[in-house]
Specification:
By secondary structure, this protein is α+β, with helices and mostly antiparallel strands. The chain folds into two domains: 165 residues, no CATH class; 192 residues, Glutaredoxin (3-Layer(aba) Sandwich). The chain has twelve helices and nine strands. The chain has a six-stranded mixed β-sheet, sandwiched between helices. Helix 1 packs across helix 5, helix 1 packs parallel to helix 6 and helix 6 packs antiparallel against helix 12. Keywords: Membrane, Transmembrane, Transmembrane helix. It is found in: Membrane.
Length: 415
Amino acid sequence: MNVCRFLLAAVFIFSGFVKAVDPLGSFYKIQDYLTAFGMASWFPTYLQLLFAVVLSALEFSVGVFLFFGIRRRFATALALLLMIVMTPLTFYLALANPVSDCGCFGDAWVLTNWETFGKNIVLLIAAITVFKGGRQIIRFITAKMAWMVSMYTFLFVFALSFYCLGNLPILDFRPYKIGQNIKEGMEIPEGAKPSVFESRFVLEKDGKQQEFTLENYPDSTWTFVETRTVLKEKGYEPSIHDFSIMSLETGEDLTDSILSDKGYTFLLIAHRIEEADDSNIDLINEIYDYSVEHGYGFYALTSSPEEQIELWRDKTGAEYPFCQMDDITLKTIIRSNPGLMLIKEGTILNKWSDNRLPDEYVLTDSLDKLELGQQKQESDLRTIGYVLLWFIIPLLIVICVDILVVKRREKKRLY
C-alpha cells in the first residue's frame, strides 16, 4: 500500500510542480481542450487561467500530503477523484486525438495520448489501493503540526505560480530556451526524412473567409485574418520545426536572413497583438529607437490580422516592422504577451517578460560592451536547488520541532 502511496506522491508532486512553473502553458493546454470540445466560449479567460493555477496547486499539495501522511482523507479522496476523472478523459483523447498530448507533465515530459492513458490506468489502481487503505498510511508528522505543513505547501505553490506568471517560467522545458540556437534546432540529421509542413493563410473578402497557400496567395483585395502551420506528411521532427517569419509589408520569408544575421536582433513577440499588455509601450518604443541607433534588427512577431496591427500602431505610435508567425509557435517561444527576445546568429541570448524589459538605465552603450549583450547564464540544476531549499528547509524546521516536542512528551511520561 505504501508503494502505491509514494508512487502517487511522486507523480502528483512532479505534475503539480511543472505546471506551477509554467502556468501559462497549462492555461494554453486548457484552452486547447475547451476548443476541441467546443466549450471555449463557455468560460471567461480569467477563469481558465485560475483553474490552471488551482489545478497545479491541488496536484502538488496532494502529492506532499500523501508523502508526509497528513490530511489522509482529503489527499486519498482527491487523488482518487482526479484519477477517476482523468482516466476516461485520456481514453477518449487516445481514441479521438482532439489534442496531440494531454499536457499532464507540461513541456517537461511529453507523452502520447496512449502512453498517458496507460500511465493513468496504473495511477488509478494505485489511487484505489491508497483510498481503501488510507488508515494504514504512516505519518511522518504529528497531527498538531500537519496544519503548518499544509498551509506552507499551499502558500509555496501559489507563490511559485504567480511569480512565474508575472515574470517568465523559472525552468524552461521548451525548445526556445536561452542558449538554444534556433537554426541548429531546425536541422535534420543526414538521411532522415523530414516532416512536410505548409503555411496556410486565412483571408477574408466580402464577409467570407478562405484558406490560401503561398502558391495561390490572392491579391490585396483580401484581408488577412491569421496564419497556420499544417503538417502534411509525418517524418523526422526536429525540436524546432515551425519557426517561420513572414514580412507583413512584402510577404517575403525573412527567417533565414534574421537567423543568419551576425549582429544583434530584438524580437518583440505578441502572439495576439489585440490582447497584448500596452502598459510598457513607451519602453518598447525606446528599445526600438536604441536598436535603430546602434544598427540592430528589431521585428515584432504576431499572428494577428492587419487591422489589429494598425490599431496597435495607432495606439502606441509603434514604428517597428511587423511580421507574421504561427500563433502556437509564438506562445511556445515566450510566456508573455508581449515579450522580448534577443538573438545573435540564431542563438537566443536572453528573454524578458513585459514586466522585466531592459530600460535606459541598462541600455547605456552598445550591446557588445554590456552584460545584456552576453548570453544569460542559466543552470536548471541550480534553479531547482534554490526552489527545493525554499520549500524543504522550512519543512525540515517543522519536522525538527515536531520531533523535539514528541521527545519532550515522552520524557514527561517517563518521569
